[in-house]
Amino acid sequence: xxxxxxxxxxxxxxxxxxxxxxxxxxxxxxxxxxxxxxxxxxxxxxxxxxxxxxxxxxxxxxxxxxxxxxxxxxxxxxxxxxxxxxxxxxxxxxxxxxxxxxxxxxxxxxxxxxxxxxxxxxxxxxxxxxxxxxxxxxxxxxxxxxxxxxxxxxxxxxxxxxxxxxxxxxxxxxxxxxxxxxx
Length: 183
Fold this sequence. Notes:
Helices cover 31% and strands 21% of the residues. It contains five helices and ten strands; from the N terminus they run H-E-E-E-E-H-E-H-H-E-E-E-E-E-H. It has helices at 3-12, 58-65, 102-112, 116-124, 165-182; strands at 18-19, 24-26, 38-42, 48-52, 97-98, 128-133, 136-142, 149-153, 158-159, 162-163.
């Protein structure tokens, strides 16, 4: 049985099926229905999918129509609808990255409030790298296959070749506290 045959069966039982956005809507034959509560759609493999939004089980619906559950499945020789495969994403165009210096590792640990050992472990596993993103010093989190990557700026004030994250954050915290106290 296909969907059009099933819709014709619903029509012969007075269920008044009509086309909807995702398939068909009809009055459910398993209960006294005044508004269409039965949704009928076709699955990707050709089977007929039923859902009574009033809560009737599929067995009750097909019993009221006098069909078997196996009738809802596509015939063995019928061609099944095939869902198209999504194309694989190309790996992102990543900037030049390196393991980073000890100062960068400590700056990141301070910025993220984790131990430098945790950052060092992530670097050894190839999950964290350092480089320039939009001409600013940044750190990158990637998966091991480098298919996904997130870039974050190292939010710090440059002093020579070092990044003084702790001093900058302390200064910012002091400014925020002073502004809040002035309100």
